[in-house]
């Protein structure tokens, strides 16, 4: 659930995007297919998300010193002026648009599998059925993770915040940085840290990066990440570009941070953990460039659904703690686990789903591309005294993931019951992995966890349900999206977390 660096271009679920996806999927429609064979999907007037995108683009225009915070709020929190009930209705409409369109794309493709058509025609189960959106338990000050960039404000001062790129402002042709301290989603603890980091940058002699996506010479301070738990323990991670600095000069940067935030004015932020990372690329993992602990505890700890978890600087961390607990419960509930079930947790993160499933499932394979997350997961399993039924696997890319899934399928055979929980944000799932999921007959159910519905992810649902491309490529029985459970993790935004239950037909 990360905010894009260029907030004016962040991903929104729009009818234009969905239509483009469907048009590309439907180019091979058979003209001979009888319209009577296609069951009609529910139709009703929909919320016009294209209109909202137009408003977001115009929000970055004519930005001034006086209206900059209002402009940023209109971009980051475009639904803030609606009542919360109205926000939920808007999000419900957007999700229904998405799955009405993917349902049509599945049914109208000439490769449609006969089992899918039979399943829908004879109403053997739900098909793309969107449940009512579950509201967030809290609607303000809910963000427990923020990724912020260094930049120059509209008055030319160093600052830290989110980027806005004015589209028609000749005076400010470059990207501007606006502080998010006035956003109602920000926690007060984070606001205090942002204000102090802003003051730290202004008094420091080294230049900042004017755009963290375009790295230039002699620019050093890049980004900070703030993470906090329910007890308001705060972790700050500072990322800099090392350029050609010597070790002594980099050590001085770390000392400057310590002197300001631990011994100086910034101590009122009450930072519990302060990390430092040098990164010469767009993004660096802990394996490439380790995080250096400058001060405090090495980890944060958070409780999800009664279980305690360790959070590392590179760990996957949900933005809304209370809302994410609902997501985790929904995943486990709809996976329908029992003592004979094998669970594939693909994109396991710090292991929340795996650890919640451990008392129920027969065997769990927790797979994640980051080794640091795997280490956290193993520690968290011991911390929660889990049964010895979780195998932790670091699958660093999709090719590796493909081999892991095939090996697990061969190990358990066709008679086992396997359920897969898939987080596409942790892996870029292409047709190759989709095909291997379908080719394992023991996988009876998929639980997809989505925080966005972009073209690649929507195409994955299409490929899960599509018929065989040729007689030489058998991909196994199809999966169809049956029930869709939207959960609002980010109030006032256009984003919705979606748990999608896919059943084998």
SSE topology:
Elements: H1 15-25, H2 49-59, H3 68-76, H4 84-108, H5 114-121, E1 129-130, E2 145-152, E3 158-164, E4 176-178, H6 188-203, E5 221-228, E6 234-240, H7 247-261, E7 271-278, E8 292-296, E9 300-304, E10 307-311, H8 321-335, E11 341-346, H9 352-357, E12 363-368, H10 371-383, E13 390-394, H11 398-412, E14 417-422, H12 431-439, E15 443-450, H13 455-465, E16 479-487, E17 497-504
Parallel strand pairs: 1-16, 6-7, 11-12, 11-14, 12-13, 14-15
Antiparallel strand pairs: 2-3, 2-5, 3-4, 5-6, 7-8, 9-10, 15-17, 16-17
Features:
13 helices; 17 strands; single chain; 505 residues; seven-stranded mixed beta sheet; alpha/beta; eight-stranded mixed beta sheet; globular; disordered N terminus; 32% helix
Provide a brief overview of the structure:
It is built from 13 helices and 17 strands. It has 505 residues and is an alpha/beta fold.
Write structural notes for this entry.
The chain is α/β, with parallel strands linked by helices and 505 residues long. It contains 13 helices and 17 strands. The strands form 3 sheets. Strands 1-16-17-15-14-11-12-13 form an 8-stranded mixed β-sheet, sandwiched between helices. Strand 12, helix 10 and strand 13 form a beta-alpha-beta unit. Helix 1 packs parallel to helix 4, helix 4 packs across helix 13 and helix 11 packs parallel to helix 12. It is globular and about 70 Å long.
């Amino acid at each position: 659930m990360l905010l894009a660096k260029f907030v004016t271009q962040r991903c929104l679920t729009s009818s234009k995007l969905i239509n483009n996806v469907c048009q590309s999927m439907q180019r091979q429609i058979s003209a001979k297919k009888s319209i009577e064979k296609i069951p009609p999907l529910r139709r009703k007037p929909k919320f016009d998300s294209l209109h909202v995108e137009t408003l977001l683009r115009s929000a970055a225009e004519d930005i001034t010193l006086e209206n900059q915070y209002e402009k940023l709020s209109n971009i980051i929190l475009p639904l803030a002026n609606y009542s919360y009930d109205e926000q939920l209705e808007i999000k419900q409409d957007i999700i229904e648009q998405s799955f009405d369109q993917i349902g049509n794309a599945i049914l109208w493709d000439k490769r449609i599998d006969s089992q899918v058509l039979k399943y829908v025609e004879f109403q053997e189960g739900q098909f793309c059925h969107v449940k009512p959106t579950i509201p967030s338990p809290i609607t303000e000050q809910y963000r427990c993770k923020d990724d912020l960039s260094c930049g120059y404000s509209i008055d030319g001062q160093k600052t830290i915040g989110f980027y806005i790129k004015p589209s028609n402002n000749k005076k400010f042709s470059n990207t501007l940085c606006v502080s998010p301290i006035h956003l109602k989603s920000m926690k007060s603890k984070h606001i205090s840290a942002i204000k102090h980091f802003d003051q730290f940058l202004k008094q420091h002699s080294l230049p900042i990066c004017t755009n963290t996506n375009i790295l230039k010479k002699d620019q050093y301070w890049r980004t900070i990440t703030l993470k906090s738990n329910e007890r308001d323990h705060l972790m700050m991670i500072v990322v800099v570009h090392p350029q050609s600095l010597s070790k002594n000069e980099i050590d001085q940067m770390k000392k400057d941070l310590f002197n300001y935030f631990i011994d100086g004015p910034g101590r009122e932020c009450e930072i519990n953990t302060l990390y430092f990372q040098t990164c010469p690329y767009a993004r660096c993992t802990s394996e490439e460039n380790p995080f250096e602990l400058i001060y405090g505890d090495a980890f944060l700890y958070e409780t999800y659904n009664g279980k305690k978890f360790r959070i590392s600087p590179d760990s996957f961390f949900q933005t809304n703690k209370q809302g994410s607990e609902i997501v985790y419960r929904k995943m486990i509930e709809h996976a329908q686990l029992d003592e004979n079930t094998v669970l594939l947790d693909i994109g396991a993160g710090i292991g929340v789903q795996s650890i919640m499933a451990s008392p129920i499932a027969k065997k769990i394979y927790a797979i994640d591309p980051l080794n640091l997350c795997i280490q956290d997961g193993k520690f968290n399993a011991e911390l929660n005294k889990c049964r010895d039924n979780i195998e932790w696997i670091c699958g660093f890319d999709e090719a590796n993931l493909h081999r892991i899934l095939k090996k697990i399928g061969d190990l358990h055979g066709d008679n086992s019951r396997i359920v897969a929980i898939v987080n596409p944000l942790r892996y870029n799932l292409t047709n190759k992995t989709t095909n291997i999921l379908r080719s394992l007959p023991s996988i009876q159910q998929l639980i997809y966890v989505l925080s966005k519905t972009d073209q690649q992810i929507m195409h994955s649902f299409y490929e899960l349900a599509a018929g065989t491309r040729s007689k030489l490529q058998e991909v196994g029985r199809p999966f169809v999206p049956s029930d869709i459970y939207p959960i609002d993790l980010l109030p006032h935004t256009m984003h919705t977390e979606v748990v999608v239950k896919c059943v084998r037909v």
